[in-house]
Specification:
Blueprint: H1 2-9, H2 21-31, H3 37-45, E1 49-50, E2 56-58, H4 61-73, H5 75-80, E3 87-92, E4 98-104, E5 107-113, E6 120-124, H6 127-136
Antiparallel strand pairs: 1-2, 3-4, 4-5, 5-6
Helix pairs in contact: 1-6, 2-4
Length: 143
């Protein structure tokens, strides 16, 4: 399903081997939160998605673990930013913002996070909407 959608949106994409199943449990264990089902399904089809500029539209399962743990443990980040404990970062943009799942009162949503201002803004409510906007509306859709 995800390969088909991404291929239609971005025919130049190169797909990777699927993520190993054990990585999903490592993400949950390392971050203390469940991996959204739609992200699990995408990673089961391809372990990450990149655009033509090399931006990691969706990070690999390994990077999700590494970057989220680094952001949560970096001493400078603790002084500069609000906590990241309720976020699961999974992608970034050539324009600087990073994207993360956050659980809202209505279910999970996807926010953009600006490292310069620490602004966290709900931009879409599903991975499908995120991918459609990333591949069809360019880099400015989240502003």
């Amino acid at each position: 399903m995800w390969r088909l959608l991404i291929g239609e949106l971005y025919p130049e994409v190169e797909f990777l081997e699927p993520a190993k199943e054990a990585l999903f449990w490592r993400i949950e264990e390392a971050l203390g939160m469940p991996v959204p089902w739609e992200l699990v399904e995408l990673l089961r089809e391809t372990n990450g998605v990149w655009n033509e500029y090399g931006d990691a539209v969706v990070w690999s399962a390994e990077r999700i673990i590494e970057d989220n743990l680094a952001m949560r443990s970096e001493p400078d980040y603790r002084e500069l930013y609000a906590p990241f404990d309720n976020l699961m970062f999974f992608g970034d943009s050539d324009m600087g913002p990073q994207f993360a799942y956050v659980h809202t009162g209505y279910g999970p949503g996807i926010i953009s996070w600006d490292h310069e201002t620490d602004e966290r803004r709900l931009v879409v409510v599903s991975l499908r909407d995120y991918l459609v906007r990333r591949f069809t509306q360019g880099s400015d859709w989240f502003r």
